[in-house]
Amino acid sequence: xxxxxxxxxxxxxxxxxxxxxxxxxxxxxxxxxxxxxxxxxxxxxxxxxxxxxxxxxxxxxxxxxxxxxxxxxxxxxxxxxxxxxxxxxxxxxxxxxxxxxxxxxxxxxxxxxxxxxxxxxxxxxxx
Length: 127
Known about the structure:
The chain has 127 residues and is mainly beta. The protein is 4% helix and 48% strand. The strands form two sheets. Strands 2, 4, 5, 6, 9, 10 and 11 form a seven-stranded mixed beta sheet that branches. The longest helix is centred in the last third of the chain and has 5 residues, at 102-106.
């Protein structure tokens, strides 16, 4: 599966953005999906996860209550709605896909769980 992330940009603190990740192929619903982010010089960190059906979501503590992950399997797209953005949310955001296995659910927070990655979209939050 190929992933294309979009929706990044510059926003002031307290603002909102919605990221999208469009997947190619007909088997999008076979994949659990996640968003990660990375700041230059730091390791990539987990942000949010959603199961293949959309029935279960997980979030990093740093974004819980502010970010919402969702998906539309009919459109082969996963979203990340980001509200109340903070300067520390500034990063390149990546979407990722992993086959819907028990391991990909158990280790949803590890970047090595995911086989496919989008190209990244930059989010900059100014204070």
